[in-house]
Amino acid sequence: MNRKYMAEPYKIKVVEPIAMSTQEERTAAIKRAGYNTFLLKSKEVYIDLLTDSGTSAMSDNQWAGMQIGDEAYAGSINFYHLEEAVRELYGFKYVVPTHQGRGAENILSKIAIKPGDYVPGNMYFTTTRAHQEMAGATFRDIIIDEAHDPQSEHPFKGNIDLNKLQALIDEVGAERIPYICLAVTVNLAGGQPVSMQNMREVKQLASKYGIKVMFDATRCIENAFFIKEREEGYQDKSIREIVKEMFSYADGATMSGKKDCLVNIGGFLALNDEELYQKATQLVVVYEGMPSYGGLAGRDMEAMARGMYESVDYYYIKHRVEQVRYLGERLIEAGVPIVKPIGGHAVFLDARAFLPHIPQDQFPAQMLAAKLYEISGVRSMERGIVSAGRNKEGQHHFPKLELVRLTIPRRVYTYAHMDVVADAVIELYKQRDSIPGLKMVYEPPVLRFFTARFEPLK
Fold first, then answer.
1. Does the N-terminal peptide bond of residue 155 adopt cis geometry, omega within 30 degrees of 0?
2. Are residues 34 and 145 in the same domain?
3. Cβ neighbourhood burial of 162 (10 Å; 0-12, 13-18, 19+)
4. Is 285 left (phi over 0), alpha (psi -120 to 50) or beta?
5. What pLDDT does residue 1 have?
6. What is the pairing mode between strands 138-141 and 179-183?
7. Is there a domain that residue 202 lies in?
8. Confidence at residue 2, expressed as pLDDT on a 0 to 100 scale
9. In which domain of life is the source organism classified (predicted)?
10. Segments of the chain with pLDDT less than 50
11. Where on the phi/psi map is residue 179: left (φ > 0), alpha (ψ -120 to 50), or beta?
12. CA nearest 124: which of 384, 328, 352?
């Protein structure tokens, strides 16, 4: 089939050879890894779609910036460049650098949550919920119902259900809700965006009760692109204008710079409240470093500041989203079940529909990711019952979505690589009836998906 796609809005200056392996070698490798793709060595992987976190290719401008890293222990010039970028592009008053997004999640949870609180959000994310729960809070999912339906074509499946939010306020009281955690986009729903209207309405309702709104801003640029593409009144707005308005409906944000800031390490907590900021600067010294470096080298802050400006370029983000969409559309044409609409950072295989003969407690998504690696060398990751973990009673959480995430790093792979991935998934779909389930043979107490080990059922 003759396919047309947008050419890369960049040229390749440096190349990195990638490993080729035989299926026999991969069968041995995935067995050694306990059928957990996180435990594979990178040298054993051909096309690495495990995550888009910290796996982007930096630009020549970012690499040049790293050469002017000011590694002063306090008051680095690169911190002020980062602070300026956050204020100009996102509109927040205060910036606390962290080594990555989960460092910001940890600090926010400790300064804002008290035991017995509830934190509502538009679907959980693994580390975010873990930090909230360790601080003594209970997470409550208030995303719209369509987000749990992989076949729903709702254009903004990341939206918060205002009725669910109001019901929680009525149930527990506003004083027990320190903030609403609003992710833009929603990773575990399939990279689904939140509409500007929903952000505005959430902020209005929260303000009525004195509740803060904190964005998980990790993929905010992708969210802005979907608003420009899908929401009435935004087609003629620039990505920069849309991003600025988005954050006007937030009191703060946690940011993993390893995604939409186009760097390999780094993040920050951004705030408007001076009292919260002062508390954050006290804790960042304990967990990260000085408030003007927060666990980062000066060169990393410089690269992140420059990456933030690059990320709001329309042609960059258009190519990024369309490359993901290309892979998803190839799979849809072949009848492979995926989450719709196709998200901004990944294509999510619907493991329930792909492997309907495997019960959820036999980890179909985990096995699907393992088998995809075995037949092709493509590394993906499970986003289902293993990632969901266990409740306070020790029972599995059983999420409605049982997914495998094919996550596309930014500015790294070509459309030819996407064709290799698509061909491998389609071939595996033809073999789906012969794929068995798994049993878990090792499980850590927290965030088990990183290091759990499995064996195939006979």
1. no
2. no
3. middle
4. alpha
5. 53
6. unpaired
7. yes
8. 60
9. Bacteria
10. none
11. beta
12. 384
Which of 348, 373, 449, 454 is the catalytic position?
Answer: 449
Instruction: Dig out the tokens for 133 from the structure.
Output: 């729960």
Question: What's the total number of domains in the chain?
Answer: 2
Cα–Cα distance, 421 to 376 (Å, whole number): 8
Our answer to whether residue 73 is catalytic in this structure is: yes
> Would residue 383 show up in a list of annotated catalytic residues for this protein?
yes
What was the pLDDT predicted at 180? 98
Q: Which of these is catalytic: 259, 320, 410, 411?
A: 259
- Give me 22's structure tokens: 């035989």
Let me know whether 152 and 269 are in one domain.
Answer: yes
pLDDT digits (tens, 9 = 90+) for 193-228: 999 999 999 999 999 999 999 999 999 999 999 999
Choose, from 37, 55, 98, 126, the residue flagged as catalytic: 126
Q: Tell me, what CATH number does 102's domain have?
A: 3.40.640.10
Could you confirm whether 170 is annotated as catalytic? no
By residue range, what is the domain housing residue 212?
A: 61-311
Annotated catalytic residue within 52, 216, 260, 350: 216
- Distance (Å, rounded) from C-alpha 429 to C-alpha 393? 36
Q: Which among 35, 125, 249, 348 is annotated as catalytic? A: 125
User: Which of 415, 320, 344, 408 is closest to 4 using CA atoms?
Assistant: 415
Q: How much is the pLDDT for 196?
A: 98
The three-state secondary structure class of 215 is strand
Residue 374's closest CA among 333, 435, 327?
435
- Taking the C-alpha atoms of residue 32 and residue 21, their distance in angstroms, rounded to an integer, is 15
Q: Which of 383, 405, 410, 411 is catalytic?
A: 383
DSSP of 78-106, one letter per residue? HHHHHHHHHHHHT--SEEEEESSHHHHHH
- 259 and 372, same domain (yes or no): no
Cβ atoms of 146 and 190 closer than 8 Å: no
Do 244 and 340 lie in a common domain?
no
Q: Do 69 and 136 lie in a common domain?
A: yes
- The single residue listed with the structure tokens 């719709």 is 340
13 is catalytic: no
Catalytic: which of 5, 10, 73, 398? 73
Active site residue 126: yes
pLDDT attached to residue 449: 95
- At residue 263, the pLDDT reads 98
Is 11 one of the annotated active-site residues of the chain?
A: no
Question: pLDDT tens across 32-63, in order?
Answer: 999 999 999 999 999 999 999 999 999 999 99
In the three-class reduction of DSSP (H, G, I as helix; E, B as strand; rest coil), residue 155 is classed as coil
For residue 361, give the 3-state DSSP assignment. helix
What percentage of the chain's residues is helix, strand, coil (to nearest 5)? 45, 15, 40
Q: By three-state DSSP, how is residue 141 classified?
A: strand
Integer Cα distance of 161 and 169 in angstroms: 13
